Amino acid sequence: MNFTVYPAIDLREGRVVRLYQGDYARQKNYAIEPLQLAHEYAGAGAEWLHVVDLDGARSGQPVNLTTLTALAHSGLKVQAGGGVRGEDDVRRLFDAGVERVVVGSVAVRDPQRVIDWLDRFGSERLTLALDTRWRDGEWCLPSAGWEQDEDATLDELAPHFAAAGARHLLCTDIDRDGTMSGPNLSLLRHLRDIAPALQVQVSGGARALDDVRAARDAGAAGIVLGRALLEGRFTLGEALSC
Known about the structure:
Elements lengths: L3 E9 L2 E6 L2 E7 L4 H10 L4 E6 H6 L5 H8 L4 E5 L5 H9 L4 E4 L1 H5 L1 H11 L4 E4 L3 E3 L2 E3 L13 H10 L4 E5 L12 H10 L4 E5 L5 H9 L4 E4 L1 H4 L5 H5 L2
Parallel strand pairs: 1-4, 1-12, 4-5, 5-6, 6-7, 7-10, 10-11, 11-12
Antiparallel strand pairs: 1-2, 2-3, 8-9
C-alpha cells in the first residue's frame, strides 16, 4: 500500500487558517494566500492537497467554492470537504475540479445516504471523515464542524462503511488537532483492527518527521499535515522523503 502525504489548507473567509482542537474561537491566521501555498506544495513534490472549508463545515454548505476551484486547478489532486450535506454539494465539488470529496457530518447522521453515494460515484471519489473524540469510554463522532454531538460511535460506523465498500477513511483525533502533540497511533491501530479493509489517513497532532514515519510504519495509508508545515517544523520535501 502506498503512503501519501497530504499537505493541508484550512479555509475560512478565503484565508489560510488553523483552529486549535476544532475551536472556531481559537483561530490562527497565516499571511500566505491559499493558491500561493498550493503552488509551493506542488513545487515541493506533493501529489495531493487536503482542503477543509471551515465556513462550509459550520454552515452546512460549501462556502469557499471560488478558492476551492482555484486550488483544484493548481496542479495538485485535491481532496476537499466541509459543508457537504447533499448530493448536489458532492456534484458541485466535482464540478469545481475536486478529485475526492470528503464527507463527514452526513456520514455520521445518515450513513445510508453516503453508502448510496459510494455506489453512485465509486469508492475512489469519496473519503469518509469520521473525526472522533474520546468521551465516556468510547470514540464519539461530533458533527457540524465538531460542534454538535451525535449518537453514533466510531466502532459502529467504521466497520459498517467498510462492509458497504468504502475505501478511504480520514480520522482526526479532535483533541490532538492543531496541538502538535503527536498523532494518535493507538487510534490508528484500533481502526485497523475493527475495519482492516479501510485505507486510513491519519490527521491531528503531527509535529515532527518521526510522526510521519511512525504513522507510515503503523499501517496508515497517509497522513494529513497542517500546522507543522505552516510553522516550519519540517518541510514538505522532508516529509515526502520519509
